Structure formats: structure tokens, C-alpha cells
Amino acid sequence: MILAPPEDTLSYTLYDTIFPKQNPFPYLGIPIRLGGYLHTQELIQGNINKALKTMNEMAMIGVNPAVFDRLLFVRFYTQIMCPQLEYGLAISMVKYREFQTIESCQNQCLHRIFWGGSRSSTQVMLHLVNQPSMKNRVHILQAKFILRSLNLPDDTLFSRLLPYLRTSASHSHCVHTQSFCLLAAHNQLLTLSSGYQ
User: Fold this and answer.
1) Shortest CA distance to 110 belongs to which of 94, 134, 90?
2) How far apart are alpha carbons 90 and 9 in whole angstroms?
């Protein structure tokens, strides 16, 4: 698969087999657009579609608050739907509107679990299920990703690329994401720890 614009006339071959051209294309479920950048909007829409489809399938087989205890339904949500919503967001630059879209999907799922009206607040529901907002969750995932990347063995590809990614010459969002995510995660941990004291 070659990531190339439609107007590119070059054809690439390997062992007399021509590589197909496509823009954007999915790799491990994450859409990649021209230039090698992640297509965050398409990723988020795909995640939302998967989570809502799973909620609908669970409802079709009889998993609903009338039959199951809400706590069990919440566990289904946190173990199945949340990872579907969060997939790929740790390495993405998510914009404010995209956060709103994800939050809206999470609210819709919580309303279905607790049989809340579409206008009812989900703050209490989030507290009951011990789930942060999607914005905070994404910042936590990004901070975990960065902290794990700092402890990788020296012979891994990412460890060898990291010095280049940290320079401004790479035009990478790695530098911005690192400083922003660590600060956001630190603030989130301070908020959580002060709430439990």
C-alpha cells in the first residue's frame, strides 16, 4: 500500500507487483492520511460507531438496566465500550470539537445505562461509575504513553527516533504533546487526590 495523492503518476513495484495507492488508509484500525499524519476525525468517528454498535448489540441480546444490575452494565461499559472509544487517542492530537463529540457519545451511553433523559446531567453518573470525562481520560492515556516511552529499552525503534522527534526540526507534535500531557495528567492527579482527602 502506497500513501499517495490521486494526482501522483508514479507507480511503485516490488517483484513485478504494483502497489495500490490509497489516501487515507487504515493501519491497525487507525486511519493515516497523506503525509503520514493520523486522521483524528475519522478515527474518532470510527470509535464512536463501534461503541454505539456494541451498545445496540448488547441491547439486542437483552443486556439492559431492567434485566441486569446497573453495576454489571457499568462494568460492561468500562471493559468493552470505553476501550473502543479510547482506541488510538493516546497518539492523536484531539481538538476541542472532537472532545465534544466523544463526550457526547459517552453521555449517550451513560444515559442508556442509567435510563436518563437526553438532557439530564452525566456528572453524577460519571462519579458513580468512577469514570473521568473523555478529555481527562485522553490526557491520562497520553501521559501513560509518554511515561512508558521514556522507559523503553535503548534498542527499540521508538527510543532511537525519540531524540529526533523531540527536536523542533521534526515538526512533530511529540514535543507539544509531551509537555501538555504531563502537565494535564499532573493537574488531574492533584484534582483527584484533593477530592479524596
Assistant:
1) 134
2) 35
